[in-house]
Every structure is written in C-alpha cells, then in structure tokens.
What does this fold into?
Amino acid sequence: MFIEMVKQGHQVTVVTQGDADYVARFRDNGVKVIDCYPTKKICPTTIKTIHRELKDGDYDICYGFNSKTIPNAAFACIGTKAKMVTYRGTTGGLYRHDPSAYLTHLHPKVSGIVCVSNAVRDDVRQRVWQRKENITTIYKGHQLDWYKVEPTKREDFGLSEDSIVAVCAAHVRPSKGISVLIEATHHINNPSFHLLLVGSGFEPHLDEIKQSPMSAHIHVVGHRQDVPSIMAMADFQVQPSISGEGLPRTIIEAMANGTTSVVTTTGGSPELVDDGISGYVVPTGNAVAFAEAMNKLINDKDKIHTFSLAAKEKLNKEFNATQTIAKHIAFFSTLLAND
It folds into this structure.
C-alpha cells in the first residue's frame, strides 16, 4: 500500500525498525524510512523524532497501527497540522472507563479511525465520544498471487482423494468455539469425512473429541508452518467462533486458494462469506446449525466446487489492494477537507 501510494505521487514516510526485512524494498521504491520504534507506550525519543519529522516535512496525515505506536504518534502530532489516524483490527477491549483507551483510539488528537471490518467499525462507534462519522471500514488489500501455494499432500495425514476434508486452523482460546465444532461432529455420520484441527491449544478439548462418534476422523495435527497449503488441500474450512473477530485471516487464506468456508455470524466473518453463495454463515454457538451447513458440503462435491470458485472471486473483486489504496486516499482527503 505504501509503495503504491508513492507511485501515485504521494509522499510517504514509515517510522519502523531499521533492520526490518521490508526496509530495503521501501527505500528502493521511494518510501522514506526512519529507524525509530517505541520501546513502550510513551517513549520520549519516539515522540520527539516523529514530532520533528511532522514539523519539518509538512505532513497531512500521521497513521498509527498498534497499541504501542498510536500513543507515541498521537502525542507527536500535538502542535502540528497533521491529522492523527488510527487503525483498529479487533472488536471489544475498547472502553470509555479504561484510562489506557485515551492513549489510543480515544486520544483527543485522533481525527479518524480505520477499521478492518464493519463489525469492528460498529463496535468502535459505540465507544468514541465524538466524530463517529470519521470511523470507517477499509478492508485490507489482498492479491491472489500472495497466497498461491501448492496443496499439502493428503497422504501426509493418511487421507485419500476420496476423503471429504475440513480444516479448522486456530490458536485456541474460548472465543474460537472449538466445543461447538466438536459438538457439531455428533451430527455428522459420513464415513468419508475427516476434520483436521491445526494450531496450538486443542489439548483441553481432547476428552470432548474422544466422546464424538467421529473421533477416529478428527485429527489434531498441532502447529504447522504450511496452513495456507493445508487450506488449499481441504475441501472446506470451518470457523466456529463464538465472539467477535475483526476479519479472520484464515478465511482470507482459504478464499485466496479457492476453498469455501462455514463460519458464524460473529465479527467480520459474514463480510467475507456470502451465505449460500460462497459458503455458509450460521448462528453463533449453534452446533446443530453448524453441522447442517457442514453436511450440505460433505454430501455435495459440486457445491463445494461452486462455492470455492465464488469465494476466490469475491476476494479478488471486493478485497483487492487497489481498492484499499483508493479508499485510504479518499478517507484522508475527507478528513483534510473537514478541517
């Protein structure tokens, strides 16, 4: 995004770790890089460095991306003409009664907030005191080529081409809804079906897995480096989350590799999946409904193929990098026009 902004004639400076892998590419493409990254939420050195750059460089926008960079950038903006913009990628955790919130998105210097999904945007709008119209959704830009991988071989998991394979990739915590997913397997009886649980933290659910009538077909494979390749190998992927997420990366990785999904109504998942077109969206916490959606795919290979093509096309059309850049520039222009 930053490189393309420079190509379009905009001046972009990135304050980051000077030894980061992407720094050389930034500089080669005209992005100015300043080697300075905060050691804490209030870092005097970082604040002074950014403030000096904002004053000397005549900047319009200062964009902070996380809980460590936002406070420093916001304080650095004081006394400059720069509009402070923040990025928000998750729902929840932002409260008016929390003093630390006034160091980030509720900081009085913040002029606008970019949210990763409409679910996040709606959540943030309930938390801020003013300028609700300056809280917007801009989806992260993607290109299909970024995710192009060779599928993992099914035989690595003892599976055949005739198997119907679903994958759930997660670093497990209560919000991931793994118990709902395992309960859903009680309502599946197709002997060709297999479920791969990829990631860390599934251990608390091992007893639940043993009690499932499909337990022999549920495979806990642990942490893997080739999750996109596993997604490409699977027939569909499942996200049974029971509380909000911003815009789940696992769904995006699946879409990019032409893999359909079953997800719940929580967070930004319904913005990625068109129910009955590119996948299924079911009520949060409803194991029976989740199983019904899974069974529709398990028992219809043609539907899996049709939905998967639609998922890939949706990502390419609605979540592409070109749109992300254009929407950022338009949002920045609106903030400056309302000065």
About this structure: The chain has two domains: 36-141+320-337, 144-318. The two ends are 25 Å apart (CA to CA). The chain has a mean pLDDT of 95. Residues 301-318 form the longest helix (18 residues).
